[in-house]
């Protein structure tokens, strides 16, 4: 494995995690706005909830308050956010290496149930 290939793989993973952190920051800010949290209370609430819970809070509010013709598109947006979170979990908790065509291959161990 060439050092340049590994550097490119690390750059891609780092960029995804960076962009995801911006998304989470924006979700935190919307929750703070909606709940009208101030200072330390804002930090306590946003840092004590995992990403899925924060996203579900915002999703519930967004779908409930969206115009009727926009509810499906709002729900689809949050489905895509959930998909990106699954990718983030994979990236954050799995080893990886460069793959063909400048792709990144993640290595995850999965338990497989066997018939006995």
Describe what this molecule looks like in 3D.
It is a single chain. A hairpin with a 5-residue loop joins strand 1 and strand 2. Helix 1 packs across helix 3, helix 1 packs across helix 4 and helix 3 runs antiparallel to helix 4. The mean pLDDT is 92. Strands 1-2 form a two-stranded antiparallel sheet. It has one domain. The termini are far apart. The chain is mainly α and 116 residues long.
Summarize, please.
This protein is mostly helical. It has 4 helices and 2 strands, in the order H-H-H-H-E-E.
Draw up the topology in text.
Elements (H helix, E strand, L loop, with lengths): L2 H33 L3 H10 L2 H15 L5 H23 L1 E4 L5 E4 L9
Antiparallel strand pairs: 1-2
Helix pairs in contact: 1-3, 1-4, 3-4
* Strand order in space, largest sheet: 1-2
Secondary-structure element string: HHHHEE
Roughly how much helix do the residues carry, as a percent range? Answer: 55-70%
Rg computed from alpha carbons, rounded to a whole number of angstroms: 18 Å
Q: Pairing-aware structural class of the strands and helices?
A: mainly alpha
> In percent, how much strand structure appears in the residues?
5-15%
What ranges have pLDDT less than 50 throughout 5 or more consecutive residues?
A: none
Distance between the termini: 40 Å
Number of DSSP E strands: 2
- Counting structural domains, the number is 1
The chain-level mean pLDDT equals 92
Give me the number of helical elements. Answer: 4
Query: Could you give a short account of the major beta sheet?
Result: 2 strands, antiparallel
Name the overall outline. Answer: extended
């Amino acid at each position: 494995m060439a050092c340049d290939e590994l550097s490119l793989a690390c750059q891609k993973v780092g960029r995804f995690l960076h962009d995801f952190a911006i998304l989470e920051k924006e979700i935190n800010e919307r929750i703070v706005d909606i709940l009208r949290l101030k200072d330390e209370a804002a930090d306590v609430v946003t840092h004590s909830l995992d990403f899925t819970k924060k996203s579900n809070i915002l999703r519930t509010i967004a779908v409930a308050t969206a115009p009727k013709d926009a509810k499906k598109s709002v729900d689809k947006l949050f489905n895509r956010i959930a998909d990106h979170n699954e990718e983030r979990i994979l990236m954050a908790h799995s080893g990886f290496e460069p793959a063909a065509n400048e792709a990144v291959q993640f290595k995850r161990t999965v338990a497989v149930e066997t018939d006995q």
